[in-house]
Amino acid sequence: MAAPTTALGLRMPAGRGARAAVRALLYALVLAVFVLPLWTMVATVFSGVPLRLGELAVLPREFTFDNLSTAFGYGVGRGLLNSAVVTGVGLFLQLTVSAFAAYALARKKFRGQALVLLAVLSTMMMPEEVIAIPLYLVLGELPDPLGGGTLLNSYAGLVLPVVGWALPVYVLTGFMRTIPLELEESARADGAGDFRIFAQIVLPLCRPALGTCAVFGFLMIWDQYLLPLLVAQTPDMYTLTLVVTNLSASQEQGVGVRMAASLMLMIPSVLVYLGLQRLFESGLLSGSLKG
Amino acid sequence: MAVLTKRRETAPARTAARRPRRLARAAGPWLWLAPLLLLFGFFKFWPTLWGMYLSFFEVRPYLGNTWTGWENFAQALGDDAFRSAVAHTVIDAAVTVTLSAGIGFALALLLEGPARHLRLLRTAVFLPVVTAMVAVVELWNTLLYPGAHGPLNSLLGLVGLGPLPFLSDPDSSLASVMLVQIWKSAPYDMVIFVAGLAAIDRQLYEAAALDGASAWQRMRHVTLPQLRPVTTIVLTLGVIRGLRVFTEIYVLTGGGPAGSTETVVTYTYKAGIQNNQLGMASAVSTVLFLVTVVLTCLTLWWRRRRED
Amino acid sequence: MSTVRGRWVGRALAPVTALVVTAGLTACGGGEGGSGGGGGALQVWVRGAEDSAAAYEEIFAGYTERTGVEVELFMTLTDFETKLNAAAAARDLPDVVINDAAQLGTMLGQGIITEIDRDALAGQEDVSDTAWASTTDIAGATYAVPFSAQANVLLVRTDWLDAVGMEAPTTWDELLAVGRAFTTEDPDGNGQDDTYGMAVPGSTERGYLAWNWATYLAQAGGSFLEPVPGGDGAYVSGAGSDAAVASADLLTRMICGDAPMAQPGALNHVTSATNTAFQTGVTGMYLTGPYAYATTDATEIEGLYTAVAPPAGPAGAGSLAEGTSLYAMAGSDHADAFPGFAEYMISAEAQETGMIGVGSATVVRLPVNTTVDVAEVRAGDERWELARRVYEENGVYEPVAVPNWGAYRAAAAETLNSLAADCGDTAAAMAELDATFTGMLGDAGIGG
Q1: Does the beta carbon of C418 lie under 8 angstroms from any beta carbon of chain B?
Q2: Looking at residue B233, which CATH number applies to its domain?
């Protein structure tokens, strides 16, 4: 019987003691490096023992929910809600806008195409940190489409600047180019218009790439720190990242409460990743990142 | 619709429709692109251009801006702190990108494969990537506590090492920041390499094995060449990301101690937002932007040349 | 899709229509944004944390009750200057900012605060002259209204003192001796070498380390900048003086060198980590403001520490005096409401509410209103009486009125932070800082 082949084409003799042991040891090491730190965060959150500066719990002693409930008392709930709204709406718009643009870039030939690609690429070099001040000025100029006032301290101000992102445009453009034209041509022969072809043929085929983009997009929006810092002015507009950094500057709350807020920041992205993992990985496998 | 349908039957209407149709063909792609370009225009290009404009002024919103020409640029480039910030940024980007890719590749070799336990391990190892940077920093700030009772130092103490000063000593602070960055980005590179490895045709290995190639030879002559496109992406994206590193440094060390972790963007942020030198900060941002553009164009050009 | 024309219109507009529809749909789920500005409410931004918000709300409630003017409070501790500078850049400042007195020169330099007609304020004569002095620019014009004052005190763990058999320090030598004993003699008795003498906020952020240094500098008889006698608002640098070198040496040798006594990581620490170091038994001493009483009493070490006057240096007793001030911001739509607001804030009623209204947040540390009796309001807590005495007898303000004062403090913090990081030559480093200060004064046109 052939032994399973690994990436290197090495034959792994199943059940040969020494090798298996070495592998198991390496697995343990990898877990210790990448997972144990996160575990100490969880343990600290549920540990009721007071910790000194520079200490974390490894096992939760005197199990308690106090840290979590204290953290929620300091706006973690509202922050979660705001972050969820901003990320949900932002991600949806981001994928939509990117897919539209990708469709034009992958399927149309037009003057200025190279220029558009260059423009999209150049936005990757304009992160918020670099354009923070003028971006703030712009946000103060633009009206809030959902109400009076400007984009400052508005949900639209938290969402709109993160909708346009180069990465999903590239990923989706690259992916759409790999989709064979035949399907679309036959649909077009049946009288289908661009939008129907886009919505009924191209988009469904893009599912894996959309999954990849959704994971990246979620993380990108969920992680936003500087933009909400500039936009949100009243605590009811704070996203969870702001709540976490405010708590960590707190002079009253111990490490357990701060870790509780961080844990709440971590859980949704883990859940989203686990939920979209298969799509995400098949998107990567099908070469959506090779663009 | 009924009106339009009727028109279709008459010949003149048909020719009339032709012109807009041609127009539509030309306008079509732009309508698909419009939402994206509008958003980029408002939230990327407009602020960038505004920033470039401000680079040439001493900016004082309530006292009036004063035109200063190239003085902001001269001031920044003449500042030792800025020059060392540039050096830290380059070192940080180069080292984290290389090590992340290296460790990511090693992880990919170890964890690649369809087996269930490997999938689980990969998922677990990927967790740092999906954890928000703010939370990662909060956690590592404590893990790296420099006292002997700090978590990592306690571990080192068990094997008779340390305590290490980590973030608190100018000699080790940048390395400590890079440790955190690599911890978060190596699993990301791993996933991309796993995808790359899985895409390699297994028959290539079989053929190489039949030719009597050793494991090392198969790695050198089959695996690595096949991974080249993936590697280019990992490295290019990494460098672009690396040049604008901000959140982790700002929250972990604030650029200290003794400026040993100051990077271009933390320098800009401090100058502009903490010390009100908006003009100077804009000038630095402009320089950073132009440098990134040049670097990216070079990379693209180099890639294209190789491919041709 | 039945017509040629219909097809192209549909094809062309589809993406845009779809976007508008989805944007409309999502808007419904978006909730409501808080209103940024305008309206009838007085917008007040405060730099502070957590429970302080409740304390300010309580004071503002009294103001609203009296005047009918609503107050919209915005409060943050992290990145307060980020938000303020961004708002200034957008010319969209709040009406009032409540921030450290030490921000006076910085905000003056930005041109974002307006002059105050001190004599027109009812009750201004009840406010101490020392406090008013901290709100005056170098030409003598008033640019803020004092709201709270304090000077630094030294918090010391009494149980640790007992364990090492020492008394609370009263001189620099004793300070070093106690610090070393706390670091080396295992005062918490856990058998591990994990305790330290002094909690030091050593970060350069907001100039923290220079802030900490200011008390030692005063005790050595030095100052950051010295006004030139009869120099008409001119200053010379004090950073190269013997006093500056001696005090910088004392401070940086707590962090580096043969016998460091500061908590590990001090050079990256701002207030929160430094507080935690003292509150969780990592260090046994902490030089800080009396506002730390409330937060520290809420931790494990309540009752295990005492407050004493900062140990005297070569030039005697001294302590950094600081305050919180009310700033009237430029471009305010409610400029006419400011005097009434300020009058209420300095009234005995508001001052007392600020002192004890919310137990865990003393937003008024020491009242600026001299008719308020600290001992009476704080009955039973002698630590506050100590704080008052230190402030009145030994308090020394930084030269906060110098335009862009924050930049000087930042430069001093950078120098001290680098010095403590590599334990370099103190005299050389201070000479360099001296040159930097002189250059900055010259650039600002106020050099001596």
Answers
A1: yes
A2: 1.10.3720.10
State residue B9's pLDDT score.
42
What is the span of the domain harbouring residue A42?
Answer: 14-64
The answer to whether residue A212 sits within a structural domain is: yes
- Residue A70 within a domain: yes
Q: Considering only alpha carbons, which residue of chain A is nearest residue C94?
A: A233
Give B254's contacts in chain C (Cβ within 8 Å): 203-205, 268, 270
Per the structure, the complete domain to which residue C107 belongs is given by 42-149+322-397
pLDDT in tens, B169-192: 999 999 999 999 999 999 988 988
Which pair of tokens denotes residue C118? Answer: 């001190």
Given A26, A44, A64, the domain boundary residue is A64
In contact, C88 and B62? CB cutoff 8 Å: yes
Contact A138 B292 (CB under 8 A): no
Residue C52, in any domain of the structure: yes
CB under 8 A, 24+ apart: contacts of B167-171 = B167/B141, B167/B252, B167/B253, B167/B257, B167/B261, B167/C265, B167/C268, B168/B257, B168/C264, B168/C265, B168/C266, B168/C267, B168/C268, B169/B257, B169/C421, B170/B257, B170/B258, B170/B259, B170/B260, B170/C418, B170/C421, B170/C422, B171/B260
CB contact under 8 A, A146 and C30: yes
**Per-residue pLDDT tens digits for A47-68:** 988 888 888 998 888 899 999 9
Q: Is the minimum CB–CB distance between A145 and chain C shorter than 8 Å?
A: yes
Report yes or no on B174 lying in a domain: yes
Hey, which of B99-113, B208-222, C3-17 has the most confident mean pLDDT? B99-113
Of the candidate ranges A174-178, B229-233, C9-13, the one whose mean pLDDT is the lowest = C9-13
d(CA C267, CA C213): 13
CB-closest option in B35, B148, B273 to C194: B148
State whether A233 and A133 are in the same domain: yes
pLDDT over 80 (residue B24): no
CA distance C14 to C362: 60
User: Which residue reads 């690994």 in tokens?
Assistant: A6
Per residue in C50-95, pLDDT (tens digit) is 678 899 999 999 999 999 999 999 888 777 887 888 888 778 899 9
* Interface contact C27-A147, CB threshold 8 A: no
Quick one: C131 and C95 in the same domain?
A: yes
The pLDDT of residue B182 is 96
Give the domain CATH number at C238: 3.40.190.10
In angstroms, what separates the C-alpha of C1 from chain A's closest C-alpha?
7
Q: What is the mean pLDDT of chain C?
A: 88
Q: What is the pLDDT of residue C435?
A: 96
Which residues neighbour C379 within 8 Å (Cβ) at sequence distance 6 or greater?
Answer: none
Q: With beta carbons less than 8 A apart as the criterion, state whether B296 and A126 touch.
A: no
Give the mean model confidence (pLDDT) for residues B161-176: 91
Do residue A144 and residue A36 come from a single domain?
A: no
Which residues are C153's β-sheet partners? C288
**pTM for the model:** 0.85
H or E segment to which residue C343 belongs:
helix C338-345
Say yes or no: C410 contacts chain B, CB-CB below 8 A. yes
Tell me which chain C residue has its CA closest to the CA of residue A160: C23
A54 CB neighbours in chain C (<8 A) are: 264-265, 282
Cβ contact C89–B260 (<8 Å): no
* Cβ <8 Å between A281 and B195: yes
Measured in angstroms, the CA of A53 and the nearest CA of chain B are apart by: 8
Q: Tell me what the pLDDT averaged over chain A comes to.
A: 86
Q: Which two tokens stand for residue C69?
A: 């003017």
CA geometry: angle A162, A167, A172, nearest 5 deg: 115
- Judge contact between C96 and C114, C-beta under 8 A: no
Please determine, for residue C247, whether its predicted confidence score (pLDDT) is greater than 90: yes
Whether A290 is in a domain gets the answer: no
C79 touching chain A per CB within 8 A: yes
**What is residue A287's predicted lDDT score, i.e. its pLDDT?**
55
**Residue A6: inside a domain:** no
